[in-house]
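Long-time lurker. I teach an intro course on protein structure, and each term I like to show students one example going from raw sequence to a predicted 3D structure in token notation. This year I'd like something fresh instead of my usual example. Would anyone be willing to generate the tokens for the chain below so I can use it in lecture? Attribution to the forum is fine with me.
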Amino acid sequence: MLLQKLGLAFSTYAPLIDESPQPGENPARLVMRLSLRKAQAAGDKFPDALIIGSDQVACINDIVLGKPGDRKHAIEQLQTASGRRVIFYTGLTLLNTANGNNQTLCEPFIVCFRRLQRDQIERYLDAEQPYNCAGSFKSEGLGISLFERLQGDDPNALIGLPLIRLVAMLNTEGIRIP
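-- Reply from a regular --
Happy to contribute to a lecture. Here you go:
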């Protein structure tokens, strides 16, 4: 959906890589390493291509929340986030498999949650079931109702792909948008 905004032709590929953090690895380093590793794994399948790798984690005080997987864990995550500031770190890599060049960065985005009541959380989860989303919400949908304010350079980063930075990376590789 996000890449379609840019009018680019693309294929998708989801490489299976170990996403476990390394000992002592902070969230920003983790998402940068994983976005690069995903791009490299895809690059093995697509020679002579520009490969976009991305990864995201949600953190409260540098504690990674991860994807909840089910309703119980989503309730726990949203209760923990209630009234707090959650930082989303999105790692982005653009890998040129033709020449080996890569550009990798981390784009932070801050979400300040409203104070949430249990019934609000449950109604939200009933509506969207965001169990495969870091932080247990979809900001592009009803999840926006959970927030007090957002802080960041690119709202697309919160959805998982910082398009402003990606356009600059593509420009470096000679791709002009628009």
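Some talking points for your students: Residues 75 and 117 are 10 Å apart (CA to CA). The mean pLDDT is 95.
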